[in-house]
Amino acid sequence: MNKIGLIIRREYFTRIRNKTFLLSTFLLPVMIVLLIAGTVYLGIKGKTNHRVAVSDENGYFRDYLKSDSSLFFDFSPAIDTLNYAEKNCSAVLIIPVLKEGEKTIYRLKYKKQLGLANIDDLEKRVNAAITDHLIFTKTNISRSHLDSIRAASDIAELKTFSDEGKKSQASSQGLSYAIGWACGFLIYLLTFIYGAMVMRGVMEEKTSRVAEVIVSSVKPFPLMLGKIIGIGAVGLTQFLLWIGLAFVLILVAQAFIPHELLQEVGNMQKANAMGNAQMTQGSEAARQIFEVKQSFQNANWFLIIGCFIYYFIGGYLFYASLFAAVGSVVNEDPQEAQSLLLPISMPIVFSFIIMSIAVQDPGGPLAIWASLIPFSSPIVMMARIPYGVPTTVPYWQLLLSMACLAAGFLFTVWLAGKIYRTGILLYGKKPNWKTMWKWAFKA
Amino acid sequence: MLEVAHLKKYFTTQKAVDDISFNVEKGSIFGLLGPNGAGKTTLIRMITGIFYPDEGSILLNGKKFNADADSARIGYMPEERGLYKKMKIGEQAIYLARLKGLSASEALSQVKDWFIRFEMQSWWNKKIEDLSKGMGQKLQFVTTVLHKPELIILDEPFSGLDPVNANLIKDEIFRLAANGSSIIFSTHRMEQVEEICSQIILINKGKKILDGTVANVKQEYKENLFRITATPFPANYPNELFEVLSKKEQSLTIRIKEGHSPNDVLRYFIDRDSNISSFTELLPSLNDIFIKLVEGTSLSRQFQPAKS
A212 to chain B: nearest residue by CA? Predict the structure, then answer.
């Protein structure tokens, strides 16, 4: 219909032309990058080095417990369980006599939390030290011999391939994880941002009372649909701008890589294409760039971006219509919106939590179920798709999930339309879920 | 032009509109009166296609009213005004005109015409939030009539306007009616109704309680009141003929009793050598009629279950 086109155009252009659109398009990625960089930086920076005093009266560990910069073991007899804190140690490890054939408890006392990762590390080192101790006392092998064997044993490296029948695709779990998490997070963020935008748009029409003027020209349903589609188009525009921006950034980043290095990478790519699996030549830097490039190329970007657009639109329509329904029933008081929003934002937040589990175990039952149910499928499915279609996500799951989502948003749009049409013209009445239910199913 | 027959709309708590019928002639100005909460807005919303009536029919030019097809023929200015606050005024006027089905070029030329007529050219790139209430009102009126609707519905069009702008709008209303548009005019301000409307209906509690031309209604509700100016007054007045309501220096306000005519009264005065300088009938104002009809019904409408 012609009128819905007019509404879409108005919603789209008033927002695109707004300065906040440009600002958010460029600032949001910058903020996300800064946020990630900040956490990574703090994570590295925040990794404090610990000195751990060892009270090892039997000298069991003296020569075996390995220290390095992050964890230093101090065997000096001057330090004991009482004064370790003054002597600049974070903790003290108390080792009793270890008897063979039974479990003996050793203890770690601390004044300053060491952190889970450090405790884990410490436990590994203690176990390794016990193994080493036993090897030397039970066999005749010399220490230098064992060390040289250890050094020589570093000759294998795992590469994973996803099995796609005829050909095998080199895969990168780390990259899949990163892409999956980023996609899920982006859908989560966009659903909230644009859902809230729809709600505010509806509330603006209602509180400024322009709704009644418009509704005398256009039926409420096309008015709601026009708003949802128009704002969705804004979101899509923003997403496409981001892809363009990322593309430009990658080109710019490549310009900073020295020319010779790129040539080396190019040679490797050629060698790889000819089926030469060995990549012995080439510097370490070139090898790393090559691997990143390789795994980026192996990621199925057309599929990922295509699915992302589908799930963004589907998830957006699913939730934006509910946001519109809430916007239509509230009056001037934003507090009312708050309480009505809870049942809508809960599933989104839950989906996000499920997503962060699913991205670690993309084939698990939780991930599969949550990626089929339309409440959570946009966020959760996007976390699984980078792991590979049809290996991790079989075609039937993808198609079923897409079909369920389509059915889901058709239902919520229909439902929201019914609530919206009554709510938009009703003033002064404090809304609740019961009356909304009545409007949706009884009117 | 517009024929409304047996229109009903029941809400769960109220019979908002309960069997109302009326006709609006082409080119006439029709007054829709009623106290607060009488059901005027609900009635108007049904005529503009915002609500569907539960029962009854609406005919526009003899054909059944169809909200989608006929919205272009109707211009509606609601009592609670509203426009997009952040949108530029010129753009907004064009947008609203295009929603009514005007083409882009048609909308532009209409908006320009009206802006020149109302001397609003300088507003084009301003936003609604920059306008005063009266200015917003003028703009709202313009957006209501831009698409040359055959039926214009104005709910309290003069509230918040200064006398100069009120006259401007009033003249436009007369001009639009003279050009063949029918106008439904809803208000509480009876003096405006007397001045503008040719025909009125009064509704209260969802029912129509009065229908007719302003002159007929006044005739119907006259109370046989007359003012007579004469010197000298007769010494006494016959109670069976008329009753004196008030007396000022040389004029009397009287009510003529049932079964007697003004001629009888005049004859009585003449017979007693009283010199009559004037004799006029006192017709009730619409305000009086309104108050008389609505008074006694409780001020705020009580909620009642709508069982038909």
Answer: B78
